[in-house]
TrEMBL record:
It comes from Pseudomonas fluorescens. The chain crosses the membrane at residues 92-113. SUPFAM superfamilies: Nucleotide cyclase. This is diguanylate cyclase. Keywords: Membrane, Transmembrane, Transmembrane helix. GO terms for biological process: cell adhesion involved in single-species biofilm formation; negative regulation of bacterial-type flagellum-dependent cell motility.
Amino acid sequence: MQLDQLAALGTEQARQARQTRQARLVESLAFEPLHQAEQQRVGLLDRTATVKSAIDGVERVVGFRRVEGYPLIVFTALSKAEILSGWRTESILSATIVLVLLGFLGVLGGRLISLIKQQNRVQNDLLDAQNTLIEVNRSLNLLALEDALTGLSNRRQFDLYIHSEMGRARRTQSGLALLIIDVDHFKLFNDRYGHVAGDECLRKISAFITQNILRPADLAARYGGEEFAVILPGTDYAGAFLVAEKIRRAVMQAAIEHKDGVEGRVTISLGVAAYDPASQVQPEDLVGIADKALYVAKAGGRNMSVIAN
């Protein structure tokens, strides 16, 4: 029993002596000139630190580790350049890839922005072209439906409108009146004063007609030559006759010289007709009725309004 205790005591003393030698070895290695710490003492087991060599000035990452169960200490010292070289290579490669991607995205984005701007320009050009086309079509429609000399509606527009309004009057059982107007002795006016003066006379009479029909639905047209026509929707004989007289008096009071005319001035004669929605009268028939009333006015001495029978 005493021998066993002595043997155990010897073994423990040997282990403690070995650990003491290991600690001294680590301490002596840590204080070698090649591995002196720049900022603080580096010793002890299982530690890692960065030290700067006093000999070559190289900064190294130093590590100590004791091998468990063996009287052995592993010591490593790698320079920062060696450790960071791989990281630098990967970082440079990654940065290069990122820069290439950013460059590609920049080019792609620039191209995309350019395409968007180009598309916007094309859309704006198309919109401008469409608006221009609409405006041209509107102008053409106006030219096609407007009398160039007087600015009133032309015969084509008159025909379209009277068909439309008579159809509306038939559906709504409402009235409609028509005036046919003729400039008295206009051929003699042209022969004496010339066609330029004749054109100016027609323009003035057109203005008097327009000034005396105030409702948006009323339409004045140059029917042909020195003849005019006025469509008055929703109007009966009495209302149409009042409008006819206002126009006739306005022309007479203008006192446009006409030495071969009635009272030495330009005058007009008017035939008045009204549409009965219960009748079978067609637009052409209504024009004929108003024209007959006009003939009566001219035969009766001109410068008057006559209501159709």
